[in-house]
C-alpha cells in the first residue's frame, strides 16, 4: 500500500494532465449525508420530485423548491474538506487539469478555476428558467417569490424556474457531458474520488479515459465495479488517504 500512496503523491505533484471524477464520498467527511446510505432520513423527508411532475403540477414545483431550500440550509454550515482543497490546488497548477463532479453541494467550487470544474448534476446554488435559460441565484429567487405564487420566470414570464440540479427523469446537459468527455480523453491520469462508479454516465468516463491512454486511479471507501480497469486502487475513506499523501 505504501507504494500506492507514494505513486499517488507523485502523480498529484507531477506535470501530467489530471482529471478528477468525484462523487458523494468526497463530501461525506464534510458532514453531508450520502444520498444512498442516508441514516438520518434527510433525503427521505425531502424526497426528490420527478422532472415530469415538476412540469405537470404547481404543488410538485412547490415541493421541489421546498426540498432545494432545505438542502441549501443543510449546506450552509458545511466547509470544504482537505481533499477538496487539494483538488483545487492541482487545478491551479495546470490549466489542463479538470474536476468532473457528481456532487451538487458546491463544496468543490472555486471562483478562479470554475471553468475547469464540471458539475454533471448541476448545482444547488443556481436556478434556471426552463424556457429562456435566464439564471437566478437560488436563495435570492426563492426570497423574492411571493407566498403561494408559482415559480415563473420574471424575464420571459412564461417558463418555470427550477434549481439547476438535474432531477430524476431529467437528462444531463449535452454540453456538460461533452466537456466531461473531453476532460477524460485529454487526461494522462484519471483519478476517481469517492464514487461508487455504479451510475452512468459518470462510470463511462473511466473507460473513455482509459481507452485514450490515461492511467486510472480509484480512491474509494469500498471496491467499485471498475476496479479491474484501474492501475491503482485504494479502498479507504478520503480523509485517511489524504493523511498519507499530504
Ligand atoms: Zn424565462
Q: Could you characterize what this model shows?
A:
The chain contains nine helices and nine strands. With 246 residues, it is an alpha/beta fold. The chain has two domains: 1-32 and 81-124 and 174-246, 3-Layer(aba) Sandwich (Rossmann fold); 42-77 and 125-164, 2-Layer Sandwich (SIR2/SIRT2 'Small Domain'). The strands form two sheets. Strands 3-2-1-7-8-9 form a six-stranded parallel beta sheet, sandwiched between helices. Strand 4 (126-129) and strand 5 (135-137) form a beta hairpin. Helix 7 (174-185) runs parallel beside helix 8 (202-211). It is elongated. The two termini are 16 Å apart. The model has no long low-confidence stretch (mean pLDDT 91). The structure holds zinc ion. Residues 129, 131-132, 134, 153, 155-156, 159 line the site of zinc ion.
Architecture blueprint of SSEs:
Blueprint: H1 2-13, E1 18-22, H2 42-45, H3 51-56, H4 58-75, H5 82-93, E2 98-101, E3 117-119, E4 126-129, E5 135-137, H6 138-144, E6 161-163, H7 174-185, E7 189-193, H8 202-211, E8 215-219, E9 232-234, H9 238-245
Helix pairs in contact: 7-8
Bound molecules: zinc ion.
Output the keywords.
Rossmann fold, SIR2/SIRT2 'Small Domain', alpha/beta, 2 domains, 6-stranded parallel sheet, 3-stranded antiparallel sheet, 9 helices, binds zinc ion, 246 residues
Amino acid at each position: 500500500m505504501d507504494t500506492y500512496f507514494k505513486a499517488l503523491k507523485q502523480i498529484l505533484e507531477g506535470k501530467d494532465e489530471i482529471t478528477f471524477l468525484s462523487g458523494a464520498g468526497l463530501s461525506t467527511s464534510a458532514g453531508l449525508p450520502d444520498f444512498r446510505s442516508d441514516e438520518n432520513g434527510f433525503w427521505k423527508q425531502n424526497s426528490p420530485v420527478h422532472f415530469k411532475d415538476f412540469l405537470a403540477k404547481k404543488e410538485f414545483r412547490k415541493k421541489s423548491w421546498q426540498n432545494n431550500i432545505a438542502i441549501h440550509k443543510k449546506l450552509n454550515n458545511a466547509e470544504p474538506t482537505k481533499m477538496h482543497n487539494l483538488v483545487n490546488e492541482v487545478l491551479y497548477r495546470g490549466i489542463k487539469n479538470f474536476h468532473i463532479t457528481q456532487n451538487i453541494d458546491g463544496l468543490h467550487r472555486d471562483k478562479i478555476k470554475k471553468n475547469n470544474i464540471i458539475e454533471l448534476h448541476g448545482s444547488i446554488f443556481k436556478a434556471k428558467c426552463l424556457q429562456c435559460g435566464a439564471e437566478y441565484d437560488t436563495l435570492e429567487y426563492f426570497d423574492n417569490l411571493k407566498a403561494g405564487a408559482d415559480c415563473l420566470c420574471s424575464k420571459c414570464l412564461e417558463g418555470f424556474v427550477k434549481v439547476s440540479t438535474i432531477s430524476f427523469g431529467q437528462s444531463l446537459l449535452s454540453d456538460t457531458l461533452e466537456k466531461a468527455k473531453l476532460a477524460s480523453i485529454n487526461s494522462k491520469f484519471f483519478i476517481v474520488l469517492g464514487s461508487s462508479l455504479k451510475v452512468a454516465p459518470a462510470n463511462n468516463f473511466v473507460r473513455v479515459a482509459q481507452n485514450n491512454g490515461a492511467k486510472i486511479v480509484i480512491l474509494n471507501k469500498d471496491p467499485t465495479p471498475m476496479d479491474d480497469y484501474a492501475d491503482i486502487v485504494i479502498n479507504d475513506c478520503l480523509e485517511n488517504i489524504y493523511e498519507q499523501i499530504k
